[in-house]
């Protein structure tokens, strides 16, 4: 266990390095921070921190920089989440309140996160498997062709064409629409298959084939490709941090193009808590020089998806965590009210 003084020295090193981009020396620490001890004592503390792997000497200068282990301890023990100011909160709310549909909410969220944190923003669309059915609409396009429209509690809209084996009249269509919504509206997607399995039996024999086809299309929509979708923005922000990536920025850019990699980085959608993965904690090698800050968002206190940012390990963790948390909270409110 590190002493309280050495924890304070580590905090000061992280804060100075993040702010100045320069390795931090003992003289600068004692001048900038009220540590209450001599430069010689600070040098001893820095030597101990280096021996334990919390800081490192990047070259022959006297300065030190935090390691992944040092950032980890800083985030876990030393960094509070920086609250957003009143004007910042109002700016977030005003920007997101103008959204007209779910796609617009996600697009605005990506832009906002990238601007607030000056990092790469990643937003996952609400997962169908974690959503609730708001309404199922059935429209007749031709005597034997229908359109199924599925609307979720998060504002997501899925449309599918249904080709029927025989004409399906308006009366039967209205009956199916009413029976279907009476069973599934307001229910979790995971419950839908069981709720509709005996529905064809409520119809005349000549209509059961079409009802079964409609239900099959509905159930396919619920499980299709695990329906994971992402939107990413602010990639150009990485160019400001070229010196933070030891060799080249290319591995980071390549990783950001891989949707599967990004989904794993964000973590499980159902986990609503704040997650910070630092440097080599990211399993994908191309992202070993980055940190990922993510959190779940959703309505009613349950996460339906994740959002977060990717940036260099030399990151303003308190500010980034505060911004990510605040934006997630507002997006959840918008979904709850939509």
Written account of the structure:
With 338 residues, this protein is of the alpha+beta class. 45% of the residues lie in helices and 17% in strands. It is built from 12 helices and 10 strands. The strands form 3 sheets. The protein has a 5-stranded antiparallel beta sheet with strand order 7-3-10-9-8, sandwiched between helices. Strands 4-5-6 form a 3-stranded antiparallel beta sheet. A hairpin with an 8-residue loop joins β1 (55-56) and β2 (65-66). α1 crosses α3 (39-51), α1 packs across α4 (68-78) and α2 packs across α3 (39-51). It is elongated and about 90 Å long. The two termini are 49 Å apart. The mean pLDDT is 86.
Features:
alpha+beta; five-stranded antiparallel β-sheet; three-stranded antiparallel β-sheet
Task: Tell me the layout of helices and strands.
Blueprint (H helix, E strand, L loop, with lengths): L3 H17 L5 H7 L6 H13 L3 E2 L8 E2 L1 H11 L7 H12 L4 H16 L2 E5 L8 E10 L2 E8 L4 E7 L6 H15 L7 H5 L8 H19 L6 E4 L16 H7 L2 H8 L8 E4 L11 E8 L7 E8 L4 H21 L1
Antiparallel strand pairs: 1-2, 3-7, 3-10, 4-5, 5-6, 8-9, 9-10
Quick structural gist:
The protein is of the alpha+beta class. The protein contains twelve helices and ten strands.
**What is the count of DSSP helices, taking H or I runs of 4+ residues?**
12
Form type:
elongated
Mean pLDDT: 86
Assign the structural class, choosing from mainly alpha, mainly beta, alpha/beta, alpha+beta, or little secondary structure: alpha+beta
Strand order of the largest sheet: 7-3-10-9-8
Order of helices and strands: HHHEEHHHEEEEHHHEHHEEEH
Write down the Rg.
26 Å
Task: Classify the helix fraction into a percent range.
Answer: 40-55%
| Low-pLDDT residue intervals, each spanning 5 or more residues | none
Number of strands: 10
Terminal Cα span: 49 Å
- Roughly what fraction of the amino acids lie in strands? 15-25%
């Amino acid at each position: 266990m590190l002493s309280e003084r050495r924890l304070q020295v580590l905090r000061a090193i992280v804060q100075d390095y993040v702010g100045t981009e320069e390795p931090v020396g003992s003289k600068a620490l004692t001048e900038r921070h009220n540590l209450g001890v001599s430069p010689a004592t600070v040098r001893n503390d820095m030597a101990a921190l280096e021996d334990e792997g919390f800081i490192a000497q990047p070259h022959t200068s006297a300065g030190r920089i935090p390691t992944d282990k040092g950032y980890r301890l800083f985030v876990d023990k030393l960094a509070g989440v920086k609250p957003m100011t009143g004007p910042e909160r109002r700016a977030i709310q005003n920007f997101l309140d103008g959204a007209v549909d779910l796609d617009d909410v996600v697009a605005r969220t990506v832009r906002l996160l990238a601007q607030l944190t000056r990092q790469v923003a990643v937003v996952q669309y609400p997962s169908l498997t974690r959503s609730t059915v708001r309404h199922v609409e059935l429209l007749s396009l031709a005597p034997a062709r229908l359109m199924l429209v599925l609307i979720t509690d998060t504002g997501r809209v899925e449309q599918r064409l249904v080709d029927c084996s025989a004409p399906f009249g308006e009366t039967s269509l209205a009956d199916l629409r009413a029976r279907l919504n009476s069973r599934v509206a307001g229910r979790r997607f995971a419950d839908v298959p069981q709720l509709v399995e005996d529905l064809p039996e409520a119809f005349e024999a000549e209509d059961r084939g079409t009802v079964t086809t409609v239900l099959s299309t509905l159930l396919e929509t619920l499980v299709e490709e695990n329906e994971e979708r992402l939107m990413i923005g602010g990639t150009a922000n990485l160019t400001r941090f070229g010196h933070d990536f030891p060799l080249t920025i290319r591995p980071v850019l390549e990783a950001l193009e891989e949707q599967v990699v990004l989904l794993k980085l964000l973590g499980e959608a159902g986990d609503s808590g704040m997650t910070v993965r630092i440097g080599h904690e990211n399993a994908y090698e191309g992202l070993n020089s980055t940190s990922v800050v993510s959190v779940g968002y959703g309505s009613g206190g349950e996460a339906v998806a994740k959002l977060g940012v990717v940036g260099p390990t030399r990151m303003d963790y308190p500010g980034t965590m505060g911004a990510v948390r605040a934006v997630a909270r507002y997006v959840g409110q918008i979904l709850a009210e939509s």
